Amino acid sequence: MNKGLLFVVSxxxxxxxxxxxxxxxxxxxxxxxxSVTTRxxxxxxxxxxxxxFRTEEQYQQMIASGDFLExxxxxxxxxxxxxxxxxxxxxxxxxxxxxxxxxxxxxxKKKYPEAIAIFIMTPDFKTLEKRLRARGSETExxxxxxxxxxxxxxxxxxxxxxxxxxxxVEPAVQEVLDIITAEKRRIKNNEDRxxxxxxxx
Length: 201
Ligand code: 5GP
Known about the structure:
4-stranded parallel sheet, 45% helix, binds guanosine-5'-monophosphate
């Protein structure tokens, strides 16, 4: 059996990566990864579904125990991807897809170069600003911070394998699905299956 593929999705806040990831996971049955965070749960978020919510002390304990595939500080909170479930799924032939910030992509690529990194971006910065404003939760200051963070994130484009411009959600979801299909059809990801075919009587 071939190992599963690891897809990591990143991009600026407001680009729509969360929505896209949720839809792709719903459509494909690809395995998500539930991150651990020290930030407080938002209205409607469920422990173990959206995140594992932990105190900073518990989080540091997990770092010390080597529980994370990667960990990063994003907007004054810690976020990390638990290592064991990701590798367990990949070993069992399941593809995995999850969202991380750009630092997370860098750490994952370092530890697991086969990871396929997808950057989700709005068609332009004006649209990004409009979407952030529409959330209604950003102050002028935090808006500025997020927009300049977005430029910094995009300038790291070379470590990504794909970029999807999220103008409308449905076509953007389809593009991510197409990327997944293309990666799954690579010869190198099908060698076990091809060899089994060749042995068929
Ligand atoms: P939020 O607090 O809005 O859920 O997420 C804030 C940021 O943290 C987003 O950019 C999201 O991609 C990133 N993030 C969520 N989980 C992880 C993770 O496990 N690792 C890293 N590096 N970033 C994460």
